[in-house]
Amino acid sequence: MVKVIGVGGVFFLCKDTEATKTWYQKVLGLEPTDFGGFAFKQAEAAATFPKGAMTIFAPFSDDSDYFKPSEKSMMFNLMVDDLDGMLERIKSAGVELTQPSESHDYGKFAWLMDPDGRKIELWQPVEPKG
Q1: What percent of the chain has pLDDT over 90?
Q2: 5: helix, strand or coil
Q3: Domain architecture of the chain: domains with CATH
Q4: Does residue 124 contact residue 107 with C-beta atoms inside 8 Å?
Q5: Cβ atoms of residues 12 and 73 within 8 Å
Q6: pLDDT tens track for 13-65
Q7: Using CA atoms, how far apart are residues 108 and 123, in angstroms rounded to an integer?
Q8: 14 closest CA partner among 5, 24, 3, 4
């Protein structure tokens, strides 16, 4: 059967690509690849969260306020292995969260803005029971 099996990339426009890449390196610890972007190995996410790792591809109504305070039409959800550790890293970089972090039975979340005004949702999955 022919089917889509995942997201192969997310590509976005920036005012200053070098400044944006540097921000993602400094604040979130992402390591750039030779082609100028960042790559996430799906096997690493699956090994860390065997039952909980997944990529969500979901449209939102154009009147949703979930992306606020961003005015952009997209938001990034980045999976992390240790949200508390990442929050320490973000704080030490001088970046503030846009709202308090939250915990749910499906994961822990925190939100911040990138230098281009895109909202970033950080997500530490919780392994489902059973």
Answers
A1: 82
A2: coil
A3: 42-125 (3.10.180.10)
A4: yes
A5: no
A6: 999 999 999 999 999 999 999 988 999 989 999 999 998 888 999 999 999 99
A7: 6
A8: 24
